[in-house]
Design a protein that fits this description.
The protein is α/β, with parallel strands linked by helices and 332 residues long. Helices cover 31% and strands 18% of the residues.
């Protein structure tokens, strides 16, 4: 028999938040909502607590964690900020932007994959912000799912993936962005690098910094090596079902395909219906595509199709982030 779920999904009442804050201070794990995806949180300054994250997720020690803070004042407690970091923080925090900076000694090597840097962000989700303030400590939190699988954007997703490994899930509703944060390497502020694209775009970063930001590398990180930031491996965010990507899906090809292959369009296709026809957003608007991307991949993975055919997004900006997740989901 399959073991029952041990995790409880809990509403964000004042009583629940106070209790979860106490548990986090005591070294326990709590799955939390953010505007990007749900995270699995622990005290970022407690190496033992953070090791529980790696155990629950089956995450390799070479993949670092993002440290979440409540206020700008906390940044200097965990990292060495520079002028470029302060400009980006003042513009985009709270929000979906993570900054990689030299770390303070209080941050355990467990959090940073043994590197002298740390990834930090200030989330905007109101419930998570209340929990951060009540806990009074920075919280390390990668996505709350088994390592490498499709990221969770609801409390139900977390319970489906980690419900037998953790005990506490804070329900903050569906994630409003649906993609992990943009990550920028600012260890060398005159040569910023985009490590992972997200809702904050390269063009937005360059407007604030006033200098070019080197785009995300197309070469994948080596799995065994310590990573500078999460989300850099070739295969990630991946359903169990094989994924084939298309620049543009032909309705004729979808119509002729076997019934056990699913076709996922950006927008709802006209005059094309069937049990294997799906779409991310009714009108194909990119924020809607991003918000539903992981939800749709999870949904179809549960339907036992032989293959998923997925249409790539057009353009730059948010489309770059969407396509980054899709290419990693489809990687062999």
């Amino acid at each position: 028999m399959t073991a029952p779920f041990s995790a409880r999904i809990q509403r964000g009442t004042p009583r629940n938040l106070a209790r979860l804050a106490r548990l986090l201070r005591a070294g326990e794990l709590v799955a939390v909502p953010t505007e990007t995806v749900y995270g699995l949180a622990a005290n970022a300054l407690d190496a033992r607590a953070c090791r529980k994250i790696f155990t629950a997720k089956g995450r390799p020690a070479s993949d670092p964690l993002i440290v979440h803070i409540h206020s700008l004042a906390q940044l200097a407690e965990v990292a060495e900020p520079n002028a470029a970091a302060r400009r980006l923080a003042e513009k985009f925090w709270p929000g979906a932007l993570t900054l990689v900076l030299p770390k303070k000694t209080c941050v355990p090597g467990t959090v940073s994959a043994g590197l002298p840097s740390v990834a930090v962000r200030m989330p905007s989700h109101p419930l998570f912000r209340r929990l951060l303030k009540l806990a009074g400590i920075p919280l390390a939190a990668p996505s709350a799912n088994p390592f490498g699988y499709v990221s969770p954007t609801s409390a139900a997703h977390v319970r489906a993936g980690l419900g037998r490994k953790i005990r506490h899930i804070l329900d903050g509703g569906p994630c409003t962005i649906g993609l992990e944060s943009t990550i920028v390497d600012l260890r060398h502020p005159r040569a910023p690098r985009l490590l992972r694209p997200g809702a904050v775009t390269q063009a937005q970063l360059e407007r604030v910094l006033g200098i070019p930001v080197r785009p995300a590398s197309k070469s994948a990180a080596k799995p065994a090596a310590a990573q500078l930031a999460p989300g850099l491996l070739a295969r990630h965010y991946s359903p169990r079902t094989p994924v084939t990507l298309h620049q543009k899906i032909s309705s004729a090809a979808a119509r002729r395909s076997p019934a056990d292959e699913a076709w996922v369009f950006l927008a709802k296709p006209r005059a094309l219906m069937g049990k294997n026809i799906f779409w991310f957003d009714t009108h194909g608007r990119l924020p809607g595509v991003a918000r539903r991307l992981f939800h749709v991949l999870r949904l179809l993975d549960g339907k036992k199709f032989a293959r998923l055919h997925v249409e790539l997004a057009l353009g730059e900006g948010l489309a770059t982030a969407i396509n980054d997740r899709l290419r990693r989901a489809a990687a062999k």
